[in-house]
Fold this sequence. Notes:
Elements lengths: L1 H35 L7 H9 L3 H37 L7 H23 L6 H29 L3 H30 L2
Helix pairs in contact: 3-4, 4-5, 5-6
Amino acid sequence: AxxxxxxxxxxxxxxPKTEDVKKEPEKIEEEEEAxxxxxxxxxxxxxxxxxxxxxxxxxxxxxxxMSDFPNALMPLQQGMQAFxxxxxxxADNTALMEDSGWxxxxxxxxxxxxDGINLVREMEVPENPAITKAHxxxxxxxxxxxxxxxxxxxxxxxxxxNKLNQCTTHLNKGTEYLTQYNDAILDFMKTL
Length: 192
């Protein structure tokens, strides 16, 4: 009976030794994993942000661009509104083509449009590829609107319906580019 007790007690002593040996390698593996998970050095992250134009300076430039945009477009919008109203008047009464007061109002609206075009062209564009690409669409819209500014007075003075139709085509193209610009800016803003 005594020998049976000794045999049962021996395996109990061996088991804790085996468990102690197993625990040591596990600790070493955990330490190795901790070394592998070290974060990348902080100085590498701003380089990537600077390349995308989204570092703090890039974000400041984008903020300035976005806040300047409404100011640049205000004269353009006001000019377009007055220009449209004048054209609606003309559609109802083609005799206005000979009216000096109506022509002066239309020329004033065209000047407002040109002032807006100039302000848009003077805007500082951030060094961000997405904003630059979007701004290029805005400039294409301004090119189309400027064609109207130059062509419209000639069309009215010569009573040339073909040139008036060309003005309409340029206005529509400008509006298409402006819509594409807005879509591109909205897509960019979703990435922030």
